[in-house]
Fold:
Amino acid sequence: MAVGYEVKSYENRIILASQYDGGRYPADIAGLKSGDRITSINGKQVSVFSEIQEAVSLSAKRLTTIGIDRSGTRIESSLRPEMNKDTGAGRIGVYPWIEPVIGIVDPAGPAALAGLRAGDRILSVAGQPIVHTVALSALLEKERPERVDIAYLRAGQEESATLVLSYIDGAAADLGIGWKTIDHRVRASGFADAVSMGFVETVKTISGTYRGIASLFMGVNLLKAVSGPARITWMVGTVAKNGLSGETAGGLSAALGFLAILSIGLFAMNLLPIPLLDGGSILLFVIEIVRRKAAKVKTVLRYQTVGIVTVAAIFLLSTVGDFIFFSGK
Structure:
């Protein structure tokens, strides 16, 4: 019996971010082009964009080998993902190539009011051909029209509609649609294989947690990189909501997966040698074993005071960060 889970993602085809923001990223330096498919990272096969994101995010400033499929030609290149100062994660400057095919429609959104349905493929907007969703977003962001004519394909027939858009506090227009995703299935051949895969993923998550902590000392924006209880709760809700918009099983899987990663991350952090945490207690215990005598009560109290101050500072920092985050919403 096969066991596993599904991840909603997009294909491994990429678009260079530099085409739309004028920046220069590791992907540009390495010679990647829009339309390329990233097929492997450090020798490990990747088939969907979420796998690319995961591998790149854990490789900030580390030499990374990229396997590319360019119109059927196999190419290999190397790059060093830069560190995102807001998150501490690695990035190479690419977007997923998302075909402009509607997956879900908000019944109260502009698309639904214009008669669009799931399965429709956007062909053009304001007379401009649309080959992927980044082009659509860039066009709307540049022009910011209140009304826009679109052409779309439905059941082989080209049709047209007019969308009435609104912009709140300068944000991008919400079309009221979600693009069609790929259901990427991760399957184990049996119970033993599932346990093995779970162990590997757990080790990977713990390693990523410690790398993330290390990145806090490398110039990242602490107020943005460190999330407090409010922001974590919001992220769990967002993950569940986005998943449930497609199907109940997908939403539950996404939410449980996020909670699992969060729990493993908290476990790893609790093992840090900080007074007041379990890791701090273990460190003190080891020191007592090595010295072959118990620490003085006054020493332990001072040690615990350092822990209280450290944890309180982290909590204060994350709370301020949460306040700033939600103030911008």
The chain has a mean pLDDT of 87. The two ends are 45 Å apart (CA to CA). Residues 3-97+183-226 form a domain with the Pdz3 Domain fold (CATH 2.30.42.10). DSSP finds eleven helices and 16 strands in the chain.
